[in-house]
Specification:
The chain folds into two domains: 129 residues, 3-Layer(aba) Sandwich (Rossmann fold), CATH 3.40.50.720; 171 residues, Succinyl-CoA synthetase domains (Rossmann fold). Helices cover 33% and strands 21% of the residues. The protein has eleven helices and 16 strands. The strands form three sheets. Strands 3-4-2-1-5-6-7 form a seven-stranded mixed beta sheet, with helices on both faces. Strands 9-8-13-10-14-15-16 form a seven-stranded mixed beta sheet, with helices on both faces. A hairpin with a 2-residue loop joins strand 3 and strand 4. The protein is globular and about 65 Å long. The relative contact order is 0.12.
């Protein structure tokens, strides 16, 4: 069965180019991704063309890599923030369909320019400032899991699609849906195991990143999960800043999203002009406040919880009451 990338980017079998593969992080994360199952075909580091990293050939540019391997269709970037804009544009120009930009600290100016550039290309990108994407069909892009062994043990196939603006919450919401005997607040007001060995499991986890101008948005990810036949319910982490949660609420209210959605909404006590934890969490106008987002989500009929351990019981209730439509 195809994974979430079919519905995000039209990519059924990702074949991947790693930017910055010769660097310390690029090497270590490429090994983790490969061990998890990601098919890494080539690497790219300017000036390092002709080298190899763990048997993977390195090229000076994405154009050289695609010329040698025309079936390349995706890329993950372990490059400095200041290099992200040009590297991502080059990857799009080379015809790569799906990009993951992991760098933190990319300027808003560069993010806006990249968003505008991507609008004219047949490419989509995740991030910047993202831990990436993991699909239990067997591929991983970015930093999720810490190690391939841990990821395989803790992210197991199932029915929940996770969307998050936070790296840490991406991993927590993903892994805990796959944990037997997970304790949490229950429907009857008690606290204890929510399920036994019949945990709901995970289809995929998508971290849209913590920056103010993301490529793939929460709504984009939700629309992909809406099409994904494995996914029966979406577990979402949202927060103040941007209008992504408001857009998701509108899509649910309008019937564009019909599968159940559960949201853990952070930032209740965030003040305007102060970033909660991510650059994108800063409140710039009334629509970006916790209160405005909470009202929009609740008015759309979306269950909203205020603590992470309440997500799992809410997901379980959604699954018991019918799952996807």
């Amino acid at each position: 069965m195809p994974g979430i990338l079919k519905y995000l980017a039209g990519v059924e079998t990702p074949r991947t180019l790693v930017f910055g593969i010769t660097g310390k992080q690029g090497q270590s994360k490429s090994r983790m991704m490969s061990r998890y199952g990601t098919e890494i075909i080539a690497g790219c580091t300017p000036g390092k063309g002709g080298q190899e990293v763990d048997g993977v050939p390195v090229f000076d540019s994405p154009f050289d890599a695609v010329k040698a391997f025309p079936d390349l269709n995706s890329a993950v970037f372990f490059v400095p923030a200041g290099a992200v804009r040009q590297a991502a544009m080059d990857a799009m120009d080379a015809g790569l369909r799906f990009l993951v930009l992991t760098a933190d600290g990319v300027s808003s100016h560069d993010e806006i320019a990249l968003k505008e550039y991507a609008a004219g290309k047949d490419s989509v990108y995740l991030g910047p400032n993202t831990v990436g994407l993991l699909d239990t069909e067997g591929y991983l892009f970015g930093l999720i899991g810490g190690s391939a062994t841990w990821a395989k043990q803790n992210y197991r196939p199932g029915r929940v699609g996770v969307i998050s603006r936070s790296g840490g919450l991406s991993q927590l919401l993903g892994a805990f849906h796959c944990r037997p005997d997970l304790p949490g607040p229950r429907e009857d007001g008690t606290y204890g195991p929510l399920w036994g060995d019949d945990y709901p499991g995970l289809s995929a986890v998508v971290c849209v990143g913590g920056d103010p101008v993301p490529g793939i948005t929460m709504l984009d990810a939700a629309l992909a999960f809406q099409e994904d036949p494995r996914t029966e319910v979406m577990a979402v982490y949202g927060e103040t800043g941007t209008t992504q949660e408001n857009d998701l609420a509108d899509a649910v209210a309008d019937g564009g999203i019909t599968k159940p959605v559960v949201v853990f909404l952070g930032g209740k006590y965030t003040r305007a002009g102060v970033a909660q934890s991510h650059a994108g969490a800063m409140i710039r106008n009334d629509s970006e406040t916790w209160e405005s987002k909470h009202r929009a989500l609740v008015d759309a009929g979306i269950p909203v919880v205020e603590r992470p351990d309440a997500v799992f019981g809410a997901v379980l209730r959604a699954l018991k009451h019918g799952g996807g439509k």
